[in-house]
Write a structure and sequence with these properties.
heterodimer; A: FAD/NAD(P)-binding domain; Guanine Nucleotide Dissociation Inhibitor, domain 2; Guanine Nucleotide Dissociation Inhibitor, domain 1; 3 domains; 7-stranded mixed β-sheet; 5-stranded parallel β-sheet; 21 strands; globular; B: alpha/beta; Rossmann fold
Amino acid sequence: MDEEYDVIVLGTGLTECILSGLLSVEGKKVLHIDKQDFYGGESASLNLSQLYSKFKPSGQKPELKGRDRDWCVDLIPKFLMSNGELTNILVHTDVTRYIEFKQIGGSYVYRNGRIAKVPSNEMEAVRSSLMGIFEKRRMKGFLEFIANYDEDVKSTHQGLDLDTNTMNEVYNYWRLENGTKDFIGHAMALWPNDDYLNEPARQTYERIVLYVQSVAKYGKSPYIYPLYGLGELPQGFARLSAIYGGTYMLDTPIDEVLYEDGKFAGVITKEGKAKAPIVIADPTYFPEKVKKTGQRVIRAMCIMDHPIPNTNDLDSLQLIIPQNQVGRKHDIYIACLSDVHCVVPKGYYLAIISTIIETDTPHVELEPAFKLLGPRIDTLMGIAELYEPQQDGSKDGIYISKTYDASSHFESMTDDVKDLYFRVMGKPLVLKKRPNAEEEEGLNGL
Amino acid sequence: MSFPNPPKAIKLVLLGEAAVGKSSLVLRFVSNDFQENKEPTIGAAFLTQKCTIGDKTIKYEIWDTAGQERFASLAPMYYRNAQAALVVYDITKPASFLKARHWVKELHEQASKDIIIALVGNKYDLVEDSNDELRKVSVEEGKKLAEEEDLLFFETSAKTSFNVNEVFIGIGSKIPDNSPVTETRPENGARIDLSSQPAQKSNSSCC
């Protein structure tokens, strides 16, 4: 091949695949390459043999039931907020027609040595075992304030200003206890640490609203999850790109990057030369153009034959251990899934623990989580360094995504997608509705 | 007044070497049309066509390989829950028949075990007028592979429409009457429809 494209995309992680899909729909000619022979890069879901060859190449594999491909274990555990931006992108691009979603059964938080469901409305707050009787009333008042807050109606502001008052001041106005602040800030606003307390309350307010609205959408929890694992997401957007003319080349390492006058000009692979003025890539394709963020994430995939104890035998849930509760600076997240989401054979459960590393013995940092899980059949651990681009791409035409962070959802990933889109296209991303299945069918008859 | 049963949606995937006429077969079936040098379809997630067989109606959702074909980069999602597959070759190109064998093997490994596969030798129009020197894959070779692998077998021409409808009717009559689309998937807990506003729980199992 000696061909010209508008954009070359390197790596089939979710960020790259969403951009590839969006750009193809806009009429850009896209060549999408991955050096590996499967879709998804770091956002893939691995089958059993892929999983063990990656994490325990020389270790012994326990006796496990099911076919190899009955296992779809996410490398990066995250859930979608049902009212979040990734859901919007999925709906607007109609990628929902390739992927089926189910709810996550519950959202739990650790407080004072026990775990309990996170209350998402005033009614649940009153019933919650997380708080004493008086604290419940204060929490009820706080949630009513959040629900009724109206920017244009001063009387709903309770004398507070979300842009000048800190979140801690807002909490203190409602006289909430520190433990209650912990689960609001970490299990509802989903902040990974306590820095938000001393910042203006606006962002925390918006995060709580996103949480509450996401719960209200389907009921059990604010989270949804694709059947067969998160690896379906990059595949869905890759398909979107492909049906709009995008060309896919897996199992194709980059032999050489071509430059003209210091700007990106193309790549050479085993298939020959491909030229384009722009490249979008994950950090692994340009190690010399990225820097460490300083954060490292440890993730542990635990294979179990039982649900997490004390969670009403739920088939799936998120459990957050707020930093303060276990004397840490970063929260520990646990994502639990089962055969209901088609990621393990019947009878198995998968719990994926993740947190930002704080010490020289990261596996020990996961102990509080292991204690909550009960017996495990096997545990596979991996450590990931987080990278971000050194430059914004305007000078050399090389636009690099950020490594997927330790957060439990996709909101920071979609921020990166929108930011990259803006830098590449020179205009903000406006989601347009594609014709849906029925409309398209109408066209078919012509 | 009687109401017909709602059509059963069947995901059908196309496989085969480039330029054997996969899209042309579908275009013939869906629109009864044929275009020389047809450009690949842009922007269609999948084409749909209803097909009535006796008293049942099937709605085919036909997935084209699109831009994932040229460098053999099909996503596993492509095969996922496919209930039928057309493996197409060109009867004037022996290499495309070899490739067809490869795709049949791939389907047995990747797809659901109940998938109904039709082996289709296309471009029959090129050998029709006793022009047999162009034919490079004999009917017997096709039949033999089909028997070994338990496939339906047809020789077709998307150009003249010879045998095209028969392929889809043949597949449709092999689809069991009582199998719901989602038979292979667990039914505990409802799937959700992200695009419905306001969203509500949905038990629907087809698109």
